[in-house]
Amino acid sequence: MSNRGEGTMRRMRRIGVIAGLIVAAGALAGCSASADTSVANANAGNAAQVDTKVGDAAAAAPAAADRSLVVTGSLYITVEDPLAAADKAASIVQTAGGRVDARDETAPQGRDGGSASLTLRIPADDLDKVVDDLRALGTVDSYATQARDVTTEVTDLDAKISTLRASTDRIQGLLADAKDIKDIITLENELASRQAELQSLEAQQRGLHDQVSMSTIDLSLTTKPVVIADNSPQTFWDGLSSGWHGLVAFISVALVVIGALLPWAALGTVITIAVIAMVRARRRRAARRAEASPAPTPAPTTNPALWATQPGAPAPAAPQAPATPPAPAEKLAPEHPTPKPPAA
C-alpha cells in the first residue's frame, strides 16, 4: 500500500510540474507578445513624435519606406480593339513580373465594339512604370488608386508568429523528455493546438504579404460609343433641300445605271439588226424561187361547184325540180255504218 501511495504521489508531482511548465510557457509567450507590442507601439510613438517635431520630408522618408501599404486602383481606357489591347496589357504585366487574376471579354456585336476587363496584380515597386505602359494602349478616361496602411497588422502577425514558434519549440522539448503516457498525451494535444494556430497565422501573413508586395489594378478596355444622329428634316426648307438632294442622288444613280447598260444595249441593237437582215434575205430568196418555178396544172375535179372555175369544162346541167308526192286518198266510208240506237 505504501509503494502504491508513493507512486501516486510521484505521478501527481510530475503532472503538477508539467502543468506548471505549460502555464509558465504560456505566460512567457504572453509577456513576449506584450513586450513586442509595447516596443512596436513605443517605436511608432517615437516616430510620430519625431515627425511632429521635425516636420522635415527628408526625416520622414525613411519612416514611410518601412510602412506596409496595400495599393488598389482602377484604370479605364478607350481603345480601338479591346480584345487586342487586352492581350497587350497582359503581356506588359507578365513582363514586369505580375500576373492576371481575372479576365472577362465581350466580342464585338452590331454597333457595340466589344470590351474587356482584367484584374491585374502588379509588383508594388514597378506600379508606376507598368501604369505608364498601359496608358499607351489608348485614351485614358480615368485612373484612381487607394492605399491602406497595414503596418500594424504586419507587426502584430510577426510578433504572434515568433512567440508561437518559441512556445511550440519548448513544448516539443518537454514532449521529448516526457515518459508518462498521460504527460505525452497532454503535451501532444497542446502541441497540436499551438501548431494549428501557428499555421493559421502564417497563412494570414502570406496573404497580407501578397497584398503588400503586389498591387491590384482593375483595368477596363472599351471602344468609342456609336452616336446615331437624327438628320430628319424639321422645316419646309429642310424638306425641300432633302427632296432636291434626293432627286439629284436619284438622277446620279440613274445615269450610272444607264452608263452601265449602254454598252449592252448597243450590242443588243447590233445583234437585232443582223437577225432582221438575215430574215429578210431568206424571204427574198424564197420569193425568187417561187417566181422562177412554173405553175402546176390543176387536176380535174368531180365537184360540180368547181367546174366553172376550170377552163374548157362543159356547163353543168340545170337541176331538176323534185317530184311532188301524190295527195293522200280520201278515207272511204265504212261499208257498214254504225247502227243508231232505237228511240224510246
Describe this structure in words.
This is DUF4349 domain-containing protein. Residues 1-35 form the signal peptide. Pfam families: DUF4349. It comes from Demequina lutea. Residues 302-312 have a biased composition (Low complexity). It is a single chain. This protein has seven helices and five strands, in the order ααβαββαβααβα. It has helices at residues 2-54, 57-65, 82-95, 127-135, 151-177, 181-213, 236-292; strands spanning 69-78, 99-106, 115-123, 139-149, 214-222. Mean pLDDT is 75; it is low at 1-8, 27-64 and 329-333. The termini are far apart. It has 344 residues and is α+β, with helices and mostly antiparallel strands. A five-stranded mixed sheet has the order 2-3-5-1-4. Among the domains are: 2-61 and 151-213, no CATH class; 68-149, Alpha-Beta Plaits, CATH 3.30.70.
Question: In short, what is this structure?
Answer:
With 344 residues, the protein is an alpha+beta fold. It is 59% helix and 14% strand.
Radius of gyration: 62 Å
Q: Average pLDDT value?
A: 75
Q: Termini, distance in Å?
A: 187 Å
Largest sheet: 5 strands, mixed
Strand order of the largest sheet: 2-3-5-1-4
Percent of residues in helices comes to 55-70%
Low-confidence stretches: 1-8, 27-64, 329-333
Shape: elongated
**Number of helices in the DSSP assignment:** 7
Determine the structural class based on helices, strands and strand pairing.
alpha+beta
Beta fraction? 5-15%
H-E order? HHEHEEHEHHEH
Q: How many β strands by DSSP?
A: 5
Organism: Demequina lutea
Pfam family, one: DUF4349
Protein name: DUF4349 domain-containing protein
Keywords: Membrane, Signal, Transmembrane, Transmembrane helix
